[in-house]
């Protein structure tokens, strides 16, 4: 499969596994899982057919590991980034001392005032390394990387969780923990 097709399928999955499964008649369970057969059938019914082999290639080759199959291979879900309510069953985990968040300059004044908010997602996404944060910020323009004092946040009672693909999740990051 060529790269363009892979990106199109990945974006389709993001839209329907994270944000609007009902748009194509897909049902996610309370943990975000959808049956692979149901996903393939719904996509075909709504004019965007792809095969199980293509789906497997997208899951295996996605550089950010955005999607995962369950142990049986019969269900799929997005690893994080949902705007629909799901419980990914992630347990609170002690974060590394520092985490990072990639953004763009035009967002800085609001972030300095309000901190990082989850906006329409279920959590704020943080990166374990600066390079990943640069890539995240670069999606919307010239990247700016914020450093999060995760150790101090955790000591102050904020809970962190880490998704299956290594993205750190927290409800919010108050401005005093950012530099």
User: Can you list the strand order of the major beta sheet?
Assistant: 1-3-2
Q: How confident overall, as mean pLDDT?
A: 94
What's the N-to-C terminus distance? 42 Å
- Sheet-strand content, in percent, reads 15-25%
| Count, helices | 6
- Please tally the β strands and state the result: 10
CATH architecture of the largest domain: Alpha-Beta Barrel
Largest sheet: 3 strands, antiparallel
- Top CATH class of the largest domain: Alpha Beta
**Structural class based on helices, strands and sheet pairing:** alpha+beta
Report the principal-axis shape. globular
Order of SSEs, N→C?
A: HEHHEEEHEEHEHEEE
The third-level CATH topology of the largest domain is ADP-ribosylation fold
Helix content: 25-40%
- Tally of separate domains: 2
Query: Over all CA atoms, what is the radius of gyration?
Result: 17 Å
Low-confidence stretches: none
Write the layout of secondary structure elements.
Blueprint: H1 3-19, E1 34-35, H2 36-45, H3 52-61, E2 67-69, E3 75-78, E4 98-104, H4 108-114, E5 116-117, E6 124-126, H5 130-138, E7 143-149, H6 150-155, E8 161-162, E9 168-170, E10 172-173
Antiparallel strand pairs: 1-3, 2-3, 4-7, 5-10, 6-9, 8-9
């Amino acid at each position: 499969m060529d790269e363009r097709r892979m990106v199109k399928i990945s974006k389709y999955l993001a839209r329907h596994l994270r944000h609007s499964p009902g748009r194509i008649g897909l049902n996610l369970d309370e943990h975000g899982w959808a049956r692979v057969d149901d996903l393939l059938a719904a996509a075909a019914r709504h004019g965007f057919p792809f095969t199980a082999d293509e789906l497997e290639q997208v899951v295996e080759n996605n550089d950010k590991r955005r999607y995962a199959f369950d142990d049986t291979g019969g269900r799929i879900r997005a690893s994080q980034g949902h705007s629909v309510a799901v419980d990914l069953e992630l347990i609170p985990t002690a974060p590394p001392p520092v985490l990072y968040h990639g953004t763009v300059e035009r967002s800085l004044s609001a972030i300095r005032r309000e901190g990082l908010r989850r906006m329409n997602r279920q959590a704020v996404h943080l990166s374990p390394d600066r390079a990943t944060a640069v890539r995240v910020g670069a999606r919307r323009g010239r990247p700016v990387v914020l450093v999060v004092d995760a150790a101090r946040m955790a000591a102050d009672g904020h809970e962190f969780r880490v998704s299956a693909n290594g993205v750190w999740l927290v409800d919010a990051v108050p401005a005093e923990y950012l530099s």
